[in-house]
Design goal:
This protein has helices spanning 7-13, 54-66, 78-86, 103-111, 128-134, 157-167, 179-182, 217-230, 236-247, 249-268, 287-293, 308-317, 347-353, 369-375; strands at residues 71-75, 94-98, 119-123, 139-145, 170-174, 192-196, 210-214, 275-277, 300-304, 322-323, 333-335, 359-363. The chain has 381 residues and is an alpha/beta fold. The structure holds pyridoxal-5'-phosphate. Residues 77-79, 102, 104, 149, 174, 176, 196, 198-199, 208, 210 line the site of pyridoxal-5'-phosphate. The modification N6-(pyridoxal phosphate)lysine is found at residue 199. It holds the Pfam family Cys_Met_Meta_PP.
């Protein structure tokens, strides 16, 4: 396999080529739980699909390569991947978590990891002074999202990972919004990269999947153990679908991003829109940092319509987008973060973070922007 492909070519060729025996272009879906060892002692590379499956392995190799990492892991959902990564921390250890993290991350920390004595504090990771102040003697890790959800807040990943390194802490990022196409956190010094591949990587709203990539062998061993022991592995069929999604990630992201750019500018001039959160605007907080660490602003825009009433009225006035708690599909997807993606976070915390009931998150799809503008005409009334 050629080693020095350009970024877009890499998406097409990151995974292993089909199978040598038949010449099949695509990696077969190995629908098997166990692998016949024929005789003992066992010498076959595969034994049992919870441990490893060739279709899953193809995806794991592809995502590792795309993130510029050595070891990839695929899970049955983004939350399975996040839970697995959080298992790197033990009872009595302390983790700093970005205060506007995904609602599901907040939920497993407060409802489960807390029960097992993993300590955590939610901090504003966009402010390194606050992060520094929050580090305790038992702090072992920092978990971050950038751009964050839904306000697109930007954390300086290189500066954060440098601080973490000085203090001997592991850094983890939920890289779902940016995807490896726009942002490669390992190159910025982050240790553990996590994806909900349900979103852009899958790209067609037809599966749930989670991915982890690391470079460090010790971390890889720990993650592999949790993956195999807990068994929240991605099925062979969904591994195949995720691989299929990966191949078009670069061109989908380019199109969605260019649509989002145009739509964001248009949204800024609408009568009903109080504010547009989009890291592509030069006056967006942290835009300069984002530009330095990512290839582009992505394709998620959040608008503030001022009240829950206005937000719901707008959402219900549309007919093209899917209305649901997801993003990253080829179709435009509209979410009401307050009641959907961030339902797991108490209302008073959401309000303090600025995740207010008037927000509407738009994951811009590959449709013609003109169609979306026409469909969003309620914003002018
Ligand atoms: C959707 C999402 C998750 C959870 O992923 P699932 O595949 O739904 O389990 C985690 N983080 C972010 C940023 C997400 O958007």
């Amino acid at each position: 396999m050629e080693r020095d492909l350009k970024e877009k070519s890499l998406y097409v060729h990151a995974g292993p080529r089909g199978d040598k025996y038949t010449g099949a272009v695509n990696v077969p879906v190995y629908l098997t739980s166990t692998f016949d060892q024929e005789e003992l002692p066992a010498r076959k590379p595969y034994e049992y699909s919870r441990g490893q499956n060739p279709t899953r392995e193809a995806l794991e190799q592809a995502i590792a390569r795309l993130e510029g990492g050595k070891y990839g892991f695929a899970f049955s959902s983004g939350m399975a991947a996040i839970s697995t990564a959080l298992c790197l921390f033990a009872t009595g250890e302390h983790v700093l978590v970005t205060e506007d993290c995904y609602g599901g991350t907040y939920r497993i920390l407060t409802k489960f990891f807390a029960r097992y004595g993993v300590e955590f504090d939610f901090v504003d990771t966009t402010d390194l002074e606050q992060v520094k102040k929050a580090i305790k003697p038992n702090t072992r890790g920092i978990f971050v999202e950038s751009p964050s959800n839904p306000l697109m807040r930007i954390t300086d990943l290189a500066a954060l990972s440098q601080l973490a390194r000085e203090k001997g802490l592991i850094t983890l990022i939920d890289n779902t919004f940016a995807t490896p196409y726009l942002q490669k956190p390992l190159a910025l010094g982050i240790d553990v990269v996590i994806h909900s591949a349900t979103k852009y990587i899958g790209g067609h709203s037809d599966l749930l999947a989670g991915l982890i990539v690391v470079n460090d062998e010790q971390l890889a061993r720990q993650i592999k153990l949790v993956q195999m022991a807990f068994g929240a592995v991605l099925s062979p069929f969904d591994s195949y679908l995720t691989l299929r999604g990966l191949k078009t990630l670069a061109i989908r992201m380019e199109q969605q991003q260019s649509n989002a750019r145009e739509l964001a500018l248009w949204l800024r001039d609408r009568k009903k829109v109080k504010r547009v959160y989009y890291p592509g605007f030069s006056d967006h907080p942290g835009a300069e940092i984002h530009q330095r660490q990512a290839r582009g602003p992505g394709a998620v825009i959040t608008i503030d319509l001022g009240s829950e009433e206005e937000a719901i009225a707008f959402i219900n006035s549309t007919s093209i987008p899917v209305i649901g708690p997801s993003l990253g599909g080829v179709e435009t997807i509209i979410t009401h973060p307050f009641s959907m993606s961030h339902a797991g976070i108490p209302a008073e915390i959401k309000n303090r973070l600025g995740i207010t009931p008037g927000l509407v998150r738009i994951s811009v799809g590959i449709e013609e922007v003109e169609d979306l503008k026409q469909n969003f005409s309620a914003l002018d009334r």
